[in-house]
Amino acid sequence: MKKISFLLCVLFCTFANMQAQQGQSKEEYIDRNFKIDLPFEVLQISDESPAPLKGVGHIEVINFGTLGNTIILKYECPELDKYFKESGQEKPHYYYSWSGKNVHLVKVVDPNGIVYGIVRGNKQGALLGSYDGVKIMKIVNEEGVGTINYDIHKGMSRAEVERFLGGLGMKFQQTRNVGNLRIWTLKWFQLQDVYNIFGEVDHAELNNDRKYIDFYFDANDKLVKWIIYI
Hints:
- The chain is mostly beta strands.
- It has 3 helices and 14 strands.
- The longest helix is centred in the N-terminal third of the chain and has 15 residues, at about 1-15.
- The protein is globular, with a radius of gyration of 21 Å.
- The model is unreliable at about 200-205 (pLDDT under 50).
């Protein structure tokens, strides 16, 4: 596993220095609706040791134009399923998402392979691809990348979303329709300047009308997609 650990370290550094390596690698930002399935044979979750586990990672990019992207990563791993079943433990949800204006799926091609990275700015959420002949999936989850787990996922009912959001002191209300989808908006607190007749700031008021998340529900009140305004 020393080679695998080394490869993962190289992979991480390759993404961290993409701009500096333009002469050796080619990068593409996939800011459009997009899906891809990528098999892996090595899995690493955050700071855990890499493990020789086979599975498939499923990436979906949901594009919201100038508002940004929501990217979902879920994966299948039969060996992990077997482990949880035999040990009597509850199987976790292999489901992560990232959402916002600065969230992107980046494809990097260099002489050693092809890797897809889910990033927020210069922060990494996950890396998947083949590098030096090894198919790798790494959930990086850097601080500040804003990883969301199964707490928000496709197919949730509106009632389930409300229960998850309950107690946060936020406002959750239907705001508009787009086609056959109903949009419910989560609003949070913000300080807003109040001006006098001379156009000068008189004082600031606190309200909870700052748009934070738009949730899109279908006719059956099931969550189809969402975008976070950060």
